Amino acid sequence: MRIELNGQHKELAGPATVAQLLLTLGLERAPCAVEVNAKLVRKALHQTHPLAEGDRVEVVTLVGGG
């Protein structure tokens, strides 16, 4: 399955949820915000929100510093 992730094409092995995508990216424990097709997906829904062919996904992580 092919999606657009932060403006870049990404191939996924098959049907996936937002949580599975974050796991693949190594971000499963990172504080982040996820939008799918310009709609925010609340963290409580990451486990059940399915991704579909052609979805546009934006993942924004929080970075601290000074």
The CATH topology is given as: Ubiquitin-like (UB roll)
Helical run tally: 1
Helix content range: 10-25%
Q: Strand sequence of the main sheet, in spatial order?
A: 2-1-7-4-5
Q: What is the CATH first-level class name?
A: Alpha Beta
Q: Return the CATH architecture.
A: Roll
- Indicate the low-confidence ranges by residue numbers: none
Order of helices and strands: EEEHEEEE
Oligomer class? single chain
Give the helix/strand class: mainly beta
Coarse morphology = globular
Largest sheet data:
5 strands, mixed
In round numbers, the mean pLDDT is 94
- How many separate domains make up the residues? 1
Write the CATH homologous superfamily: Beta-grasp domain
Instruction: Please give the alpha-carbon distance between the first and last residues.
Output: 39 Å
* Strand-residue proportion: 35-45%
Number of strands: 7
**What is the CA-based Rg, rounded?**
11 Å
